[in-house]
Amino acid sequence: MGEIADNETLLAKVLVYVKGLVTTQQKGADASVRNGWAAAAKQAHADGEDKLMVADVFEDETMEDWKW
């Protein structure tokens, strides 16, 4: 990497190439990863599967002394 870092033109080309790869990956990932999540969440709610998995640790907290 020393040769690349020493040559500003080459370094700029490498950075442009890497940024292009990251942007392409993000565009593809964002579109496909969350595809169908809204429908799955609605179905989970309809089936009663969207309950808390852990007990609410603050169920006895009154919060009277809190100032907003």
Description of the structure:
By secondary structure, the protein is mainly alpha-helical. It has helices at residues 2-6, 8-33, 37-46. The protein is built from three helices and no strands. The radius of gyration is 25 Å and the shape is elongated.
Mean pLDDT: 76
Content of β-strand = under 5%
**Poorly predicted runs of 5 or more residues:** none
H/E series, N to C?
A: HHH
Give descriptors for this structure:
68 residues; elongated
Give a brief description.
The chain has helices at 2-6, 8-33, 37-46. The protein is mainly α.
What is the topological layout?
Elements: H1 2-6, H2 8-33, H3 37-46
